[in-house]
UniProtKB/TrEMBL annotation, chain A:
The chain crosses the membrane at residues 38-57, 77-102, 123-146, 158-182, 189-208, 245-265. Coiled coil: none annotated. Keywords: Antibiotic resistance, Cell membrane, Membrane, Transmembrane, Transmembrane helix, Transport. It comes from the Bacteria. It comes from Isoptericola halotolerans. It is a multi-pass membrane protein. Residues 35-268 form the ABC transmembrane type-2 domain. This is Transport permease protein. Belongs to the ABC-2 integral membrane protein family. PROSITE patterns: ABC_TM2. The keyword Amino-acid biosynthesis does not apply.
From TrEMBL, chain B:
The keyword Disulfide bond does not apply. GO terms for molecular function: ATP binding. The keyword Nucleotide-binding applies. This is ABC-2 type transport system ATP-binding protein. It is found in: Cell membrane. SUPFAM superfamilies: P-loop containing nucleoside triphosphate hydrolases. Pfam families: ABC_tran (PF00005). PROSITE patterns: ABC_TRANSPORTER_1, ABC_TRANSPORTER_2. Keywords: Antibiotic resistance, ATP-binding, Nucleotide-binding, Transport. It comes from the Bacteria. It comes from Isoptericola halotolerans. Residues 6-231 form the ABC transporter domain. It is a peripheral membrane protein. InterPro entries: AAA+_ATPase, ABC_transporter-like_ATP-bd, ABC_transporter-like_CS, ABC_transporter_ATP-binding, P-loop_NTPase.
């Protein structure tokens, strides 16, 4: 291990030297697992296509709403789109990322990282980035397919849609990070994540999207991160007005969960 | 003497009520292979993990290359390579990828290609971690500890779980690494490994240093007793026993005869270092020619017995350590 070229002086590392390579290597290795990219990217679109093509009447314009309501003339599958986007936001953040991090903790990868100049935070950050990008790709795919297959209308309030997406991402990734922080094993991370994921999908309207959601579900759902995201997206896409309550709910979830996750995070 | 590379002074570490490290002090000189030897659960791993700045000490000081690793663990990360016990990697990352990845964290990394050669891993560069054998994983683990071109490397239980062949090649490897100028801190519960590799060592038991020195010095420092075992055929065994018993009676200050449970015809004669000189003429005079003569070799296990009063049992159950106090 002799160095033939002039050796640069030893330096005190910032703790992030080599992060670019860490991110690209982690991305490459992560893509070798078929399931993670599949669920994060393709799953919401498959649900969209399945519901659109296999449930009768989803593509027929709504005529039983009052003619002056915003729902009149829309297709049911269009009103399902906010739910699909919320699902995209919830899938990688809750079902993929926590399990990955819990696995790294169990295998001692985080502890091994902390013996190097790279902070172990680097590996957490790289999976936050990987799963955020996955989610955005999943959203883009769902939008393109929704437009091509079902011709959904453009959002009536683009700003509200973008803000709702951003806050949905921040609150769900904060929740996923909390699961990653406290789950002792990959199996427990998966169990906790799934027991949050399915009720949240229910509250986000997977079974009763947009206008047909019962009031009770809507009232509960508006206080959950994913339910609030779906409702804010629905308002931004089809309705008028600003969904203040839902936006505040997502901000509060993020502000509570993220510091808690950082505080409770266990490295080994 | 040069400045010590590692200095541990009155280190103490507890987990709740359990005292993992009670009072451990030692210094490591540049270029040494320094051993930390003891049964499982003695506090060896806690000692080196605290030394590496991975755990908070409850008392005492630890310095590596002059840096206090408790106050400022980041100061030594570029200079210290650590091979942790039971740390694995993602099953799907390849040998080459992980070595290049880790090299990127350091300011003056070793050439990953040279390292792969040194550790006989070149042909496995593209193999995924999950498909490596135990010995290959262990060699990769050592490679990762060395990829930052460290001045000090901590190797924790690096041959546990390896077959005898792989253990011997790992030992040769450690010597090759030391030859490149790296100071090595070797944590092991194998007495033979410590005896074979270490220039100096401490024996740790129940969180305390119970012996310190060179392997040979520790063994020589035991009581001055030596043992010679002679074996006779069935015809001579009885006569030989009588002759040696008479010798013991004449020179009870030098010679003591013991029965051995093992092979028939074997007689053990113990005494001062001059016992061999007494046994040989006595047997020669009576024309008793032993079929076999051997002197009993003392090992570090005898040192452990002498300092603790217990037979060395490396597999004493490891107490469940909490992860409390681990930091990033």
């Amino acid at each position: 291990m002799t160095t033939t070229t002039a050796a640069p002086a030893r330096r005190r590392s910032s703790g992030w030297h080599g992060f670019g390579r860490l991110l690209t290597t982690e991305t490459k290795v992560w893509m070798r697992d078929f399931a993670s990219p599949f669920f994060g990217i393709v799953f919401p679109t498959i649900i969209l296509l399945g519901v659109g093509f296999f449930i009768p009447g989803m593509r027929d314009p709504i005529t039983d709403a009052p003619p002056d309501s915003v729902w009149f003339g829309l297709t049911p599958i269009a009103t399902f789109l906010p739910t699909v986007l919320a699902m995209a936001v919830g899938t990688a953040s809750l079902t993929v990322m926590p399990v990955t991090i819990a696995t790294y903790r169990e295998k001692g990868v985080l502890r091994r990282m902390s013996t190097t100049p790279m902070r172990p935070q680097g590996i957490v950050a790289s999976h936050l980035i990987i799963n955020m990008v996955t989610t955005l790709v999943g959203i883009a795919l769902a939008l393109v397919v929704a437009e091509l297959a079902f011709g959904v209308p453009v959002p009536s309030q683009l700003g509200v849609v973008l803000l709702a997406t951003a806050l949905g991402l921040s609150s769900m990734f904060a929740l996923g990070m909390l699961v990653a922080a406290v789950a002792p094993r990959p199996s427990s991370a998966n169990a906790i994540a799934m027991s949050l994921y399915f009720p949240m999908l229910l509250l986000a309207g997977l079974w009763t999207p947009g206008p047909i959601m019962p009031d009770l579900l809507r009232d509960i759902g508006q206080f959950t991160p994913l339910g609030a995201a779906a409702q804010a997206l629905t308002t931004g896409w089809f309705e008028a007005g600003f969904p203040t309550l839902q936006m505040v709910v997502m901000v509060v979830w993020t502000a509570v969960l993220l510091p808690l996750a950082i505080r409770l995070f266990r490295w080994s | 003497m040069a400045d010590p590379v590692v200095e541990v002074t009155h280190l103490r570490k507890t987990y709740g009520d359990k005292v993992a490290v009670d009072d451990v002090s030692f210094t490591v000189q540049p270029g040494e292979i320094f051993g930390i030897l003891g049964p499982n659960g003695a506090g060896k791993t806690t000692t080196v993990e605290t030394l590496a700045g991975l755990r908070h000490a409850d008392g005492g000081t630890v310095t590596v290359l002059g840096h206090d690793t408790q106050r400022d663990p980041a100061a030594v990360k570029d200079l210290l390579g650590v091979q942790l016990q039971e740390a694995t990697l993602h099953d799907k990352i390849t040998v080459g990828e992980v070595l290049h990845l880790f090299a990127g964290f350091y300011s003056r990394p070793a050439d990953p290609g040279e390292l792969l050669d040194l550790l006989d891993l070149t042909e496995h560069t593209d193999k995924q971690f999950g498909r490596l054998s135990g010995g290959q994983k262990q060699r990769l683990s050592i490679a990762l500890a060395l990829v930052g071109n460290p001045e000090v490397a901590i190797l924790d239980e690096l041959t546990t779980g390896l077959d005898p062949q792989a253990r011997r090649s790992t030992w040769e490897l450690v010597e090759r690494v030391r030859a490149t100028g790296v100071t090595i801190l070797l944590v092991t519960h194998f007495m033979d490994e410590a005896e074979r590799l270490c220039d100096r060592l401490v024996v740790i038991d129940a969180g305390r240093v119970v012996a310190e020195g060179t392997p040979a010095g520790l063994i020589d420092g035991l009581d001055d007793e030596r043992t010679v075992v002679v074996r006779f055929g069935a015809d001579d065994a009885g006569r030989a026993r009588q002759r040696l018993d008479r010798l013991a009676a004449e020179h009870h200050d030098v010679v003591r005869v013991e029965e051995l449970d093992g092979t028939p015809g074997e007689i053990a004669v113990s005494g001062t270092p001059r016992v061999l000189f007494a046994v040989v003429p006595a047997l020669a005079e009576a024309d008793l020619v032993p079929e076999d003569v051997r002197t009993v070799t003392r090992t570090l296990e005898d040192v452990f017995l002498a300092v603790t009063g217990r037979t060395y049992a490396p597999q004493e159950p490891e107490p469940e350590l909490t992860t409390e106090g681990v930091r990033s």
